Amino acid sequence: MLEKVISVDLIEVFENGCVQVRTKTTILENNEQLSNTYHRHVVLPGNDYSAEETKVQTICAAIHTPEIIAAYKATQTIQG
Hints:
The protein is of the alpha+beta class. The chain is 30% helix and 44% strand.
């Protein structure tokens, strides 16, 4: 029997408040690992993270303070 298991296996927080999330997809056959693939995405300060996994939401809620969001948006205005 084949099984596909998707999990968040790495969460990184950068100095500017961006939260990088790595999702691991594992394919199992009879509980034996056949392969892994990875996908990364970034949650920017001020972005909606309500669809993220609970542990990602918890980290974003702690990191994305009004001050961090304002500072991030200010750097984007300067760079843009």
